[in-house]
């Protein structure tokens, strides 16, 4: 099962009500065969960057949470539908977590001066390929003088 991250904003509520809303959001994942890896509280009653309209109300403050979970890919559309209808969730977004590429490096390569590193030499070779041609029609100028 792939790993997903659910970032969502809850409307401004008391702490027991926030706990109930978080439990309800987590149970939806469990009901669909997923499991939760991590829950992060990113701030309670923080100002939103702009006023947000949701379920007939205007919200200027919200509680920010991030939930990391594993679930089958077929259940993501169902989760989106459930979270869209939840009146306590102001905004939500589900992201697929990408595994970082594993880069192998050694200390010997890292302590070389930049001009001798293989990756820097590749970047320089690539930039040489992309250099624009210099214009020269026997004028000695490197630009076209009649272009605006």
Number of strands: 4
Query: The CATH topology of one domain is what?
Result: Alpha-Beta Plaits
Query: At the first level of CATH, what is the class of one domain?
Result: Alpha Beta
Beta-strand level of the residues, as a percent range?
Answer: 25-35%
Q: Specify Rg, calculated over alpha carbons.
A: 26 Å
Straight-line distance between termini: 57 Å
CATH superfamily of one domain: Ribosomal protein S6/Translation elongation factor EF1B
Biggest beta-sheet profile: 4 strands, antiparallel
| Count of separate DSSP helical elements | 4
Computed structural class: alpha+beta
Order of helices and strands: EHEEHEHH
Average pLDDT score: 89
Q: Architecture of one domain, according to CATH?
A: 2-Layer Sandwich
Low-confidence stretches: none
Mass-distribution shape: elongated
What's the helical proportion of residues? 25-40%
Largest sheet, spatial ordering of strands? 2-3-1-4
How would the blueprint of this fold be written?
Layout: E1 3-11, H1 15-31, E2 35-54, E3 57-70, H2 76-85, E4 89-96, H3 107-110, H4 118-129
Structural overview:
The chain has 148 residues and is α+β, with helices and mostly antiparallel strands. It has a domain at 3-96: 2-Layer Sandwich (Alpha-Beta Plaits). The chain contains four helices and four strands; from the N terminus they run βαββαβαα. A four-stranded antiparallel sheet has the order 2-3-1-4, covered by helices on one side. It is elongated and about 75 Å long. The chain starts with a strand and ends in a 19-residue tail after the last helix.
